[in-house]
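Researcher: Here's the sequence for the chain we discussed earlier.
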Amino acid sequence: MRLLQRGDGKLLYRGKDIFTADREEALALCQKMQIIFQDPYSSLNPRKTVRAILSEAFEIHHYGTKEEIAKAVEDLCERVQIPLNLLDHFPHELDGGMRQIVGIARALSLNADFIVCDEPVSSLDVSI
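Model: Thanks. This is the structure I predict for it:
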């Protein structure tokens, strides 16, 4: 099954042109497609805490109440081994490997159908 097709200046995902999708369709598509960037420092908002970064997708997609989102973020952190005491830190306070794990967690948060990875492990420690 081909998830992506390209032709005639269109980029299709499951038969929908992602470039001409209206806001509602684009929002649904964004939930199904995620990316892990190579440079975690430039891909994370320096003005947001790790908690805010990881909560953002849940809030945009109306995941639930604030308590449900907080629980989902904690579960996500447990899944990717982000210590909960780092949730109130900013990206510049983390080392490169932990910033990359935050980027990976952000991509995994919505259980996307597929994730595009631009050298996702380039910043991780050898031990990981």
